[in-house]
Amino acid sequence: MSRIATFLTRRRGDGGRWHWTDVVTWLWLGAGLILMFGPAIWLVLSSFKTPAQLAEFPPTILPYVSETVAVTLNGETRNLPLYDVILSDGSADQLAELRRVGTVAQMIDPADPETVIKVPITDRRPVREVGFAWDNYLKPLEAFNFGQYLYNSVFVTVTATIITLITNSMAAFALSKYEFRGRNAVLLIIVATLMIPLSVNLVPLYSVISTLGLQNTLWGVILPTVATPTGVFLLRQYMLTIPDELIEAARMDKASEWQIYYRIVLPLTAPALAVLAIFSVVWRWNDFLWPLIVLSRKELFTLQVGLNTFAGELNVQWHYILAMTVATMIPVVIVFVFLQRFITTGIAGTGLK
Amino acid sequence: MSFALANTIGAVFAAPVRWLAASIDAPLRLWQRLTGKGGMIAFFLMPNMIVFGTFVIIPLFINFAYSVTGGNELFLTDRSFVGTQHFDRLLTCDNHFDPSSCRDDLFWTAVWNTARFVVVQVTTIAIVAMGTALILNSKIPARGFWRAVFFFPVLLSPVVVGLIWRWILQRQGLLNFVMIEMDLTPVNWLIERDWAFVAAVGVSVWAHVGFYALILLAGLQAIPRDLYEAAEMDGTRPARVFFRITLPLLWPNLLVVIVLALIRAVQIFDEVYVLTGGGPGTSTLYLTQYIYEIGFASILRNPGLASAASLMMGGVLIVLTLGQLGLQRWRDRA
Amino acid sequence: MGQIRLEGLYKRFGVHEVLTDINLEVDEGELCVFVGPSGCGKSTLLRQISGLDQPSEGKVFIDGKDVTRVSAADRGLAMVFQSYALYPHMTVRQNLAFGLQNMKMPRAEIDRRIADVSRMLEIEPLIARRPGQLSGGQRQRVAIGRAIVRDPTAFLLDEPLSNLDAELRVSMRAELAALHARLGATMIYVTHDQIEAMTLADRIVVLRLGRIEQVAAPLDLFDRPVNRFVAGFIGAPSMNFLSVADAAPLLGGGTPDGVAIVGVRPQHLVRAEKGLELCATLVEALGTETVIHGTLASGARLLATVAGHLKVAPGDRLTLGANPEQLHFFNANDQRVDAIA
After folding, report:
1. What was the ipTM of the complex prediction?
2. What's the whole-model pTM score?
3. A14/C70 CB distance under 8 A
4. CATH code that applies to domain C237-337
5. Which is higher by pLDDT, B299 or A10?
6. Contact assessment for residue C23 and residue C79, using Cβ atoms and an 8 Å cutoff
7. How far is the first Cα of chain B from the last one, in angstroms, to the nearest whole number?
8. Domains in chain B: how many in total?
9. Hey, is B61 helix, strand or coil?
10. Reduced to 3 DSSP states, what percent helix, strand and coil does chain B have, rounded to the nearest 5?
């Protein structure tokens, strides 16, 4: 245990003394941990709270579900929330709340429902335990089309990634393993596309899509995004390291160029393809502006667009908004947990944009 | 564990893919016989170039056409030539620094908002990324974990980012609660103009700093360890080590990061739009949102004007991207 | 100035003990060489002295002062790294001046020192160049120069010659020896090359698996190795080790008690009338000497180095003898046993 402690508290300072750089380091890391993970964790915790809970200020950390008690009043049986109350004479009791008027709560003793006791709200505390309002998730999934949005996002992401991998790798193959007259020109064109991001071409791109009849379709969302210059360069860099002798040997074995591509070069490029696939999945899943422009039919919305519209319409229904935000976030978190090592080494290794 | 997962996914897809690829082989062999290597090269390049051509190059030309034509119509043939009318409208100002004196005040509001944003955000993110990279490069335990910590927000979608922070920055949200606990006066972050700007900068720094920190970290790791040890033997204090050894050797990388951040900052839209919608008023309305509103969303749609504005933004971006490419060349050579 | 003492030094990385019970005294002005096979801990030990690493247990003293907890920057030592570690973005002059500027030395003094050292090491024409523009040997001299300008209490050199080609290594070795004579400063030198150790050292520290096997002057190490490891490490080709039975023909006067192994260097075997019967298996004719690989009757292998050019072919039989005073005796624990006087 002490060895772990020594390991964890390794410091620059000599033999156990704190150097100022150590203090700064640990403060920065601590702040980073809280700031980077905190908001997402807060999001998740908040998403399980009922609207009443969300309106509480100061907020609680964990979601609570109030205990209720069945009270029969005027022939009606209702479930009223239970509170621990301090009465005016100093004694403590458990009462159910009938209603709240301003800063005074009208409370009833379940055993004696006729008598209303007025209690200032500061003298009462809800009896509750940690509980999750799963309804926040279930309602939107059925009533607000989220299953459809999820399908659309998955469709767009998977299709775009597959097409990206195929077209980019074919182009990268041609540009890395062949010498031909127009090669530099083609490379230049691809570099040029790097300089023209989507945001510059929004209006004309929409007219192109419309001309092709792809407006308001998922394919209209997919197609403009698949030819990523970054992807072509990434794969090309990697393919350049594959020895040409392998390809020449294959040619001597009477392999066709297509076979060389898909049986030799492509498998060897697997690590770079994996990195590009991960990038593409994250990019396409998170795309917002372009789908926002292209899609106007609700059934076609991707998760991001759907979520944004959802949040705009239901401006005050945060409990649903939060839950759906968490649902939108989950796939990316999964990618993160399992694959972040690939991504971080991919970026570091290629100095990628 | 992730390796096993990747392998299983690969195996599942491999068989049908291989069958598909094999079945194309016969016709492609024929093609190769007829057109030789050149034909195959064309085949490999075609899909990508068609997409580039159709969805990047051609639209660029159409953009120019749009910017000199007027009307609400989408198809070029329905539009009338208006010459430099759009550019005139965008660029005419009594005082270019005062949007209200301009013919298109919204445009200049967007321009100056964006300018302010770019300067503040890029400076902030460069400094924070630099600090984070330095710390990630030092002797801390579980470095992989800490790298992942800072990288987490980068993967989140801008909509999620915007909504998380919209929730936290509410008047009765978490941040104000923490401030009250610390005896500070709470701020109405998204309602007050100046604080909304701070929020926009803060949120976008939060969402992207991990990415730049990683690039800088790679640059730092390329600096040989024993240079630091030699400096230690030379009796060098940490601050001097940073300014005389780390920074000069990291400089090419840092410039690349700054230019990348500039390029992204100029185009800022997604997370800010979800966070503030451009408000309060128009205080966080940036160029891309202007183009979006004028081109698509607002009732006063004017695609020609939006094109003109896009082209101007494009001009700035081309200069920046050229700078980025040049710097990357320099860095990789050094 | 420049006396270094290590007391009870241990270094562990987790459960792995890399240095065990190191006790050593290096005198002022001594050129002390740490030598040993890969992984013996010699570089680790050097880093403990430099202050770049801290020992798990034990103390380091410089000139009588306990510096175990003092940082590397403040120990007044200078180190020449195996990779030279020159600052690539600075000129040679800036590289030399860097450490001096840290000491807040006046500009005139810095310039004077740089001028002196450049002259001494003949690097004056390189002063304005960057390390990337220098050859390996030039870089090495700049690295040494960087250490010299600081006028340190002692020099620490970590395999400084291992990145040079063979020819350069020989000439640099001579230069280093001359430098030491001239400066008279304490130098601790780490190498895996025992020839460097033998030629440069005032005293050699032989290390194996984190322990000191022997500390002695080079010739003492050669003549009286304290155990079988040292005996086999020093001298190339390495010493032959024979069982008492195999060595019988050489042991005219009998052996001391407890001897299990007899050692004799290849260079000490000479053609004789009576002695070991060797059947040659491989002959390497080097011109200046002939190395004969062979087997004895028992099948044990033997190496002999004979001066000059000896006409031997594989399959030939030779009789080799040795001066009894040049035999080494080791007991069953591989420790040296001294011959009866």
Report:
1. 0.83
2. 0.81
3. yes
4. 2.40.50.140
5. B299
6. no
7. 38
8. 2
9. helix
10. 80, 0, 20
